[in-house]
Design a protein that fits this description.
three-stranded antiparallel beta sheet; 15 helices; seven-stranded mixed beta sheet
């Protein structure tokens, strides 16, 4: 079977490009480099845009630009209409016609170029394309006013699709870069090799200390757009929650929760199953909850300021909670509570334990109740996404049966929670 020709480009509506834009989840951010590289495959961001409705309209404008084949001038009109609708101020470029045109052009070109490249990547990696065109070729655009020397040097370079070069050099490779990648047959690839275009230049993978990317690639552009669309979005959220202050992080989670709560549960349950089966712990930490915005505000009203809104549990504490002695005393929570912890914490009733300065989540167990205790702003070490490090965040430390009458003690203060 011969694959269909790639009749695509800016101004040409194209399903693979549009699908890539639509599948992104909106992520509030303060700076353009709050997320970088492959995280852009899953997240839609506009630097400085933090409100959910503003981000939704900006994403809608970008997606319509791809769907309708808009040029940059038409997109600029849509961008300014969204800005006016939401009263968005303080953004880079605001206040002058030149600045507004520049900002609209950056948003347009970056999203169109990356989504175009992601669509190409999706097609190039389809089985039919890989079978008939297993080599990829770098094409430098001659239309740019100020060509980058490295990009010109890569022109015509033809390598197997699985060469490490493409993991970092799949165009676009910088702001305003108009380079592209095409796929060719094995015969063409081998002919390019005989012509001296079958090996990357020496030092192609050496990093520029100013950008953290290979020389010739702008900061944050050293990835293949579209290669990571199937990766877990939860990992990105976990990382970003740690770096956002608690109110912003909590608001972000509320906006994304419908799409991500099941993904969070899916990441946690294998951890529980392994600890229950093997009765061993490695210090592995998994994010199980995000403190809701109303709870963050209620804590602040009680003079407790969270460093961030993330709540983790290490398998070390989980193993302790499941130990036989606690079960025999009738003090343990049922296994299903621990296995469904992300879901149950999301519906639990939070209290502040003013004596221990901890969060107490009260879980409905039908005829009885249970508690999950979270130590807040705790400096804890663990294995986070495979890396052993120490962070300041909030950690589940224990849990067990609860007598509801105990909550009448003065030390416990109920916290308002968003329904």
């Amino acid at each position: 079977m011969t694959p269909a020709p790639l009749n695509i480009g800016f101004g040409t509506p194209w399903a693979d490009q549009i699908d890539f834009l639509r599948q992104k989840l909106r992520l509030p951010t303060q700076r353009w480099d709050d997320i970088q590289r492959a995280a852009h495959d899953r997240a839609f961001i506009v630097a400085g845009a933090a409100k959910a409705d503003l981000l939704a309209d900006l994403q809608g404008a970008v997606t319509r630009a791809a769907e309708m084949g808009m040029g940059v001038a038409q997109f600029q009109r849509e961008f300014l209409a969204v800005v006016a609708k939401h009263g968005w101020t303080g953004w880079t470029g605001e206040g002058s016609a030149a600045g507004e045109a520049w900002r609209a052009r950056i948003i347009y070109q970056t999203n169109m170029a990356s989504s175009y490249a992601a669509g190409r990547y999706r097609q190039f990696t389809a089985p039919d394309y890989l079978r008939l065109r297993p080599y990829w070729r770098y094409i430098h655009s001659e239309s740019v006013a100020h060509p980058r020397p490295q990009h010109m040097a890569w022109h015509g370079l033809t390598l197997p699709h699985d060469h490490p070069f493409w993991q970092t050099h799949f165009a676009p490779n910088g702001w305003g870069c108009q380079c592209r990648i095409t796929c060719v047959s094995r015969q063409e690839g081998e002919a390019s090799a005989r012509a001296g275009l079958g090996d990357p230049p020496a030092g192609w993978n050496q990093l520029d200390p100013k950008t953290g990317a290979p020389a010739g690639i702008d900061k944050g552009f050293d990835y293949a757009p579209g290669a990571s669309v199937k990766q877990s979005f939860q990992r990105l959220i976990d990382d970003k929650l740690i770096r956002l202050n608690a109110p912003i992080g909590a608001a972000m989670w509320e906006a994304l929760k419908p799409a991500l709560l099941q993904e969070r549960l899916a990441a946690w349950q294998p951890v529980f199953d392994a600890v229950r089966l093997n009765k061993q712990a490695t210090g592995n930490a998994t994010m199980v909850h995000t403190v809701p915005a109303n709870t963050v505000a209620a804590l602040a009203a009680n003079a407790v300021t969270l460093e961030n809104a993330a709540v983790w549990m290490r398998d070390t504490e989980l193993m302790h909670a499941l130990r036989d002695g606690k079960v025999l005393r009738g003090a343990a929570l049922p296994d299903q509570v621990w296995r469904d912890l992300p879901l149950l914490l999301d519906s639990a009733v939070p209290y502040l334990d003013t004596q221990n300065n901890t969060l107490l989540y009260v879980v409905d167990l039908g005829a009885n109740a249970g508690k999950v205790v979270v130590k807040i702003n705790y400096n804890e070490k663990g294995r986070f996404d495979g890396v052993r490090q120490r962070i300041v965040s909030n950690f589940v430390v224990t849990g067990g049966a609860l007598e509801l009458g105990d909550l009448k003690a003065a030390r416990y203060k109920p916290l308002t929670r968003q329904e």
